Hints:
It is a single chain. The protein has helices at 8-47, 108-115, 138-143, 159-164, 172-181, 185-189, 208-222, 238-252, 287-291, 296-307; strands at 68-75, 85-92, 97-101, 123-128, 131-132, 145-148, 226-230, 256-260, 272-277, 280-285. The chain is built from ten helices and ten strands. The mean pLDDT is 83. The protein is of the alpha/beta class. Helix content is 38%, strand content 17%. Helix 8 (238-252) links the parallel strand 7 (226-230) and strand 8 (256-260).
Amino acid sequence: xxxxxxxxxxxxxxxxxxxxxxxxxIAQIGRQLADTLGATRRVYALENEPVVIVDGAGEASSDxxxxxxxxxxxxxxxxxxxxxxxxxxxxxxxxxTLALVGPSGAGKTSLAQLLMRxxxxxxxxxxxxxxxxxxxxxxxLRSRIALVAQDTYLFNNSxxxxxxxxxxxxxxxxxxxxxxxSALSEVIESMPDGLETIVGERGASLSGGQRQRVAIxxxxxxxxxxxxxxxATSHLDALSENTVHKALxxxxxxxxxxxxxxxxxxxxxxxxxxxxxxxxxxxxxxxEELLQKTGLYRQLVSKQLSGSxxxxxxxxxx
Length: 318
């Protein structure tokens, strides 16, 4: 008859709420399931991704001198028609230092990635100690190379474990020496838990310079015969940079080294400098030889001096 007892209204309200809660939970589970399925698809997509770089036959090479040869090397990233590197020909003699210089996008880091066999060249060949990189086992090849990159990946673990990534079976003495040589000692002493300090995901609790020192410590600990420094001091202040430069000079001793840097002052003592532009080698020589020319290297030096406030400084005296 359109009437409702006063006592039934709260009862019906409670019943309605009780009926709605399971429905809302089902909807929430549906959203969680959709998120889970999305993540699962990404995992399967990664698992099903074709492996482009595979182990070689495992050519044995006991020679740790690590001389490198590039022969007619050209490379472009998958899905791109533009070549990042074009017809490169050069050699790096064992124990020497080669610097790669050029504008952003010239192909410097791509060249270093080819040496690590993150990619294979589209054309030409790269040899280490006279053996083509494709013939090495990946583990063997990469055990011979230490990389100090501009962006260092750190795990959400202790500082100790992050350094030991380079050599898990290292002794405490080896670890202490690597920490000392990389100018990381002061940083560790300032931390309440020292080497046991948790650095956070991607090293979130450390500054950019501190993360880079961890990368340098890894290189010291690995003690590989071939060293790649990709903007290894770009995040350091002037005082730290001077300290780390001294450490890196020790690290480069009797090692084949490739230096990639925008700060030209860091590569002036290299045995040979290669200037890249749009993937091509446009100049090569020592620092002094290249300054005598009117090419790209001299332009880069002049531009950097002007940007540093040395407008009246002679480029030839740099």
